[in-house]
Amino acid sequence: MGNRKNKRSASKTKLRIWAEFIPFLILCKVIRVIPLGVAYFISRQLFRGLYLIDCRHRVRTIEHLMHAGIAENRKQATALAKEAYLNFSMLLVEIFKMNQLIEIEKIAVKGSPAAIREACNTEGGNTNVIVITAHYGNWELAGSIWAEKFKIPMVSVMRPFANPLIGKNILGSRESDIHQSVPKEGGIRGLMRALKEGKTIAILADQHANRKEGVETVFFGQPCRTHSSPALLHLKTGVPIIPMLTRRVDRHLNFEFVIGDLIRYTPTGDKEKDVQAVTQMFTTALEKLIREKPMQWMWAHRRWLNLNRGAYNSD
User: Fold this and answer.
1) What's the domain count of the chain?
2) Are the CB atoms for 64 and 301 separated by under 8 Å?
3) Which of 88, 180, 202, 226 could form a disulfide with 131 if both were Cys (CB 3.0 to 4.6 A apart)?
4) Which of 84-98, 105-119, 145-159, 253-267 shows the highest mean pLDDT?
5) Which of 207, 202, 219 is CA-nearest to residue 284?
6) What is the pLDDT of residue 3?
7) Are 14 and 22 in contact (CB under 8 A)?
8) Residue 139: which CATH number?
9) Calculated CA dihedral for residues 287, 259, 206, 67, nearest 10 degrees
């Protein structure tokens, strides 16, 4: 009886995977054959509907915009939340269209001149770096386009997709001979190996971390817990950290890499203190970049310890 129940559960899980994947695949194929403007329009309508029916993420986005001080009141936060949803609707189209229309040579690079010289091979003979980025603009472009634009081999951390078929489809547009991914679980070894081989690595470091994986930091003036692996890698290898966002410039598939100041830290011998200090440095750097155009960040993340996470006892 128990085995039969387990088989039914497995079958239902597989059925759900396909039930999610088939509409995704149809939408993908439709978007790829229609003009960009039409695709953006269709996606906007879908996300306007999602905004209305997705109560949990809508409310969370509004609360987070006020909690971070981006919105002064609920009315303003509601208007900004709608804008955030529409920005996310563009990401969906861009994922499907990136191999068709994005012109890598047109992607501008802005920010710290020293960091650009260090990371972007503008003068030849660059050193490898640890790129710290966020769920902002079109983060799906960050690894593959960076590697192709600057001809620097890159390895990114990949969080497994809830739907493996959708994940496989999206990863096909992410990876290339010059850009590979390693899974989040156990990925620290792969990243360390990549750094030793002279490759650049990219890590999304703007989500909540549990107690085992993160340290407490401050983000937009509020307490949070941030993944400490970038700090550990930096302290162990000496490879500098560069905060970077892939910012959307317009609705014509134009983007720019926005780069913050280069982070180099001299260890004090107190490992715990050093890890916390470096983690706070890149967290602050990402916040500074996000603040310039905050609506391109994914505000639905449960980022802070003192809101939507049961306070400090939450993993």
Assistant:
1) 2
2) yes
3) 202
4) 253-267
5) 219
6) 47
7) no
8) 3.40.1130
9) 20
